[in-house]
Amino acid sequence: MRKFKFPRIRVHLKSKHLLAIMTLLCISLMVSALAAGISTAPLQEAAGYVVIPFEKSITAISDTIHGVQERMREKEEILLENEELKAEVEILTGENHKLLVNAQEYDRLKKLYELDEDYSDYPKVAASIISKDPGNWYDTFMINKGSRDGIRVGNNVIADRGLVGIVTQTGSSWATVRSIIDDSSSVSAMTVSSQDNFVVHGDLELIDQGKLRFEQLYDQEDIVTAGERVVTSNISENYVEGLFIGYINEVVQDSNNLTKTGTIVTPIDFAHLKNVFVITVNKQDTISGSAGAKEEDDEE
If you classify domain 124-284 with CATH, what class do you get? Predict the structure, then answer.
C-alpha cells in the first residue's frame, strides 16, 4: 500500500518577523497562564531561550550598523577635510605665483635702474615691448613709446646692461626696433683693452647659442683673447660710443693673415625681452654737439 506524502510547504520569514511572532506567542501564553492560574516560570524560561538570542542578534546587528555609520561619517569628514586642504593648496599656489611674478618684476625693474645708472650720461626713456615678428627671437619688435615721448629713428635701445638694437620707425605712441641679432644688422665695435675696431653682425643661427659673429678685426699683436669686453666704437655712425655688446668667445685667424673673425657672447636674453631703455640722442647729435662745442672753444 502506497503511503500518502504531504507536500512540503516552505515558509521564509525574516528574523525580525519571526522575533515578533515568537514574542507575541510568549505574551499570549503568559496571559493564558495567568488567566488559568498557572505559573509563568516555565514560560518565562522558554521565552528566555527563544527571545534573548534574537535580541542579542538584533543588538549585534545594530552595533554593526552603528559602526558602519560611524566609519562612513569619519570618511565623509576626511573627504571634506581633504577638499578644504586642496582649496588651501590652490590659494597658496596662487599666492606663491603672485610672489614669484612680483619678484621677477622687481628683478627687471632693478636691472633697469642699474642700467640707467650705468649709462647716466645719456637721456633715456623706459619702454615695454608690445609685439614682435613671428619666431622665437626678438630680432624685430615694437615698443609702446614713440615720437611724442621724444623717440626718433636712429635712437639706440639697451636692456640687461647691454646693446639691444636701434629704432627704425616711429609713430606717435609706438616705435619699431631692429635688434643686433637680426641678419641685416651690423655694429661698429671695439675691444676695451686694445681699442681695436671691427664689425659685429647679427646671425639668427648663432643666437641659438647666445652668440653674435664678428669680422675684420686687426690684431697683429694677438692681444685680443676670449673674455675680452666689446663695446660700440667711437667711429660708429649709428651707435653712441661705449654701449656694451658682449664678450669675445672665439678668435680665428683669416686666410689672409691680416684680419680675424670670431664670435661674441651677448649678455642679452633675446628670447625673453620685456622692458628696454631708448637713448633719446643719436650718434649724429653727439657729433653735432661736439662740433659746436669745438667751434665755441675756437672762437674764444
Answer: mainly beta
